[in-house]
Amino acid sequence: MLYTILCYKDEDVVTGWSQEEDAAVMARLGVVHEKLQRTGRLGPSLRLLPTTAATTLRKASEPPLVIDGPFAETKEQLLGFYVVDVADLEEALAIARDLAAANPGGAYELRPVLLYNPDPRLAAG
């Protein structure tokens, strides 16, 4: 079963890290990534650019309204996500706990996902 693990954290904290602090967090996460890759459970994972780089298309009107920035002002922002292939929620939670130990603070939201439009490049290896 595929789960997405959505990574939320105060982006001001993350963008305020020095290069050394960022590299240390990424190195700790790399240990978790390697373990997941070895077991074939790690799918795509992405780190999003800050919300200042975001554009929102609001589709409540015609034509849709395009605005700069994220759609909501919140204390924590969506900073990235993982897709993992696991047996069940408990296994996805175990992965989220490993990620949390590597990068404390913020929150991880776990959701089961269905493959809507598979990327043929992934099937090709």
Automatic annotation (TrEMBL):
Domain YCII-related as annotated: residue spans: 1-114
Entry superkingdom: Bacteria
Pfam family of the protein (one): YCII
InterPro entries in the record: Dimeric_a/b-barrel, YCII
Family: Belongs to the YciI family.
Protein name: YciI family protein
Organism encoding this protein: Methylobacterium planeticum
